[in-house]
Amino acid sequence: MTGSRRREPLVAAAFLMPYLILFAVFVLTPVAYGFWISLHNWHILSAQAPFVGVKNYLGVVRDDRFWRSLMQTGYFVLLTVPAGNLLSLLMAVGLNQRIRGEAVYKVCFYMPVVTSVSVLAVTWRWLYARDIGILNYYLGVPVDWLNDPKLVMPSLAMMSIWWGAGGNMLIYLAALKAIPKEQLEAASLDGANSSQRFLKVSVPSITPAVLFCTVMSVIGASQVFGQSYILTGGGPADRSLTVSLYMYQMGFGQYQLGYACAVAYLLFFFVFAFSAIQFRLMARAFVGSS
Amino acid sequence: MEGLGGGPVRKTLAIALIFAVVGCSPKGYAPRDRDGVLHLDFWNGFSGPDGTTMERIVKRFNASHHDIQVRMQIIPWGTYYDKLTLSLAFGGAPDVFVLHAQRVPEYASHGALADVDRYVRDYGPDPRDFMSRQWNAGLFNGTRYALPLDCHPLGLYYNRGLFKEAGISRPPANEAEFEADARRLTAPAKGKWGFVITDFHLVGSTVFDQYGGGLMTPDLTRSALDQPASLDAVNRMIGWVKDGGICPKPDPGGSWGAFQTGRAAMAIQGIWMIDSVAHQEGLDVAAAPVPRFGPKQAVWASSHCMCMPARLPSDRKKAAWTFMKYLSDNSLEWAKAGQVPIRRSILKSPEFQSLPIQREFAKELPYVVYEPFSVSVNQTASFADIAVESAVQGVESPRAALKTAAQRVNRVLELR
Description:
The complex is a heterodimer of chains A (about 290) and B (about 425).
Chain A: H1 2-38, H2 55-61, H3 64-95, H4 102-114, H5 117-128, H6 134-139, H7 152-177, H8 181-189, H9 194-205, H10 207-222, H11 226-231, H12 243-253, H13 257-289
Chain B: H1 8-22, E1 38-44, H2 49-64, E2 68-74, H3 77-90, E3 96-100, H4 104-109, H5 117-123, H6 132-135, E4 139-140, E5 143-144, E6 147-148, E7 152-159, H7 160-165, H8 175-185, E8 193-196, H9 200-211, H10 228-241, H11 255-260, E9 264-270, H12 274-278, E10 285-288, E11 299-302, E12 304-307, H13 314-329, H14 331-335, H15 344-348, H16 350-353, H17 356-362, E13 368-369, H18 377-392, H19 398-415
Parallel strand pairs in B: 1-2, 1-3, 8-9, 11-13
Antiparallel strand pairs in B: 3-12, 4-5, 6-12, 7-9, 7-10, 7-11
Helix pairs in contact in B: 9-10, 9-18, 18-19
């Protein structure tokens, strides 16, 4: 007995190793190597990549386009995360009512999540097209969804919410289903109506799910790329340029890999800091509610 | 919302690692096969009907050359430069490849391209047979790195049906005629427009060139976007769009569609767009040289330039040059796919003169303007485009937009 217990860490390591090796080779090493690259003037075609220290970082923070892209990425997060999570939660609550054909709805709502962003973006380009788009056809007004500097981010956000809502919906639904029935029954016996049951019993129980979904949504939305890359290319006039797209333009449009890696690291820093703050705030709220 | 980002940060870093790993083992070139035949790889981005034409020319070359056989690979332009750049940096590069004229300085400055002056001298073609502006494409710091194959300028596409309806007999040649014609063709209430801006970069560059401003000063040391001429050029374009104008608010996604469907009577676009309007039923389109809007006659153009990698062994270089020269010598065939040849002998030939649209575009050859042959053009060109777009769309005042753009361009030029 004691012998097998002593072997346990080894067994655990054996199970973890395949993932750890892949993680080390394909995530950790590139992440570290990316930092190394960010310290060099690294053009793909150049034979030498001279070490330049933090020059790339200084270049990025002095570039007005970086700050614009950062502000717009923040705007995108604000537009998508609260509204998207609310929609996911509403769909989950709806599906939790033991309705007929629940599985069909689930599949329908989840379908966009498994579809690639390029396919969706190309489809939405047709929906959004000013003169020949279906959206404007039914609205009857030529709305410039993707070409109006003020409308472009909300348009991208709308598509993104539709795209991603199904993923969080499943998590919320699982959390809702995990609430012990006894608690809800007890609440109704005590005279709580359905909205009171939802707010006082269900919501506190699913707080961990809300925390998880919000943080993941923020991280995901901060890296928004495919939507603006395919639908607008960052336009009109850079008004849908996001940090990831800016990084891509620097890295693969201009082949300035050092600079692009510096942008990547700055984005990483911002997302990391923001997630940490979020965890703190949400954890406090979580403790306060229980 | 798990799918929102797809982790491009991580992807970039991963790709960077792959570069490093792959970079250790550049691919060698296959030697001659047993019969002494040399196989050359030829890459280009001709994914449209032009690819079919090029394929035919390559087939003919292969049939007439027993010791050299060319394998052509078409990679759509959208991903072409990524793939080509990686192959040049880390191995697997083709023997012959196409670069747009404005990309030659960038690749040459990093030592990726073979110097071909010697081949021109020893094997031809005769430089005197080339139109002089076009022959300059492929030069960097006085050394030749590419053989230009063609020239693709912009032209004024106009809807002959709509022109006839409005009683206009010939395409406009200058700003006054252009505005007058466009005004007669414009009826905003009916959704009819005289003109449509289909591309900020192409139209913007052309108008800048006509006014004498633009991305960089002629010595390529700083931006010319903050010069008064650039402001005049942008104001000209704003005038087309501003209320009561002749051009709808530009919509880069659908503007060419507006021309194709007859909602706009004129558009300025590249010769490569011929194919998208030539075979459309009920659409009677013709082309003419771009009108003169500013003080100077000028129009944006580029060329497909044939290059070979610097690291190519010399016997392959010689074979590659044989093939490149063959393509140039046979560029009449290539012209039929919607290109303008740049060899004087071909331009004069009756066969070329019988191509109605190409013939019109060819009139522009003496005054076309290439993008600045600067190593930084790829890094900076979008700054000018953004300024033009902001100003024309009314997002920013033209002066402020141009000032920002000039600062951005200068920052890149100073860092070099």
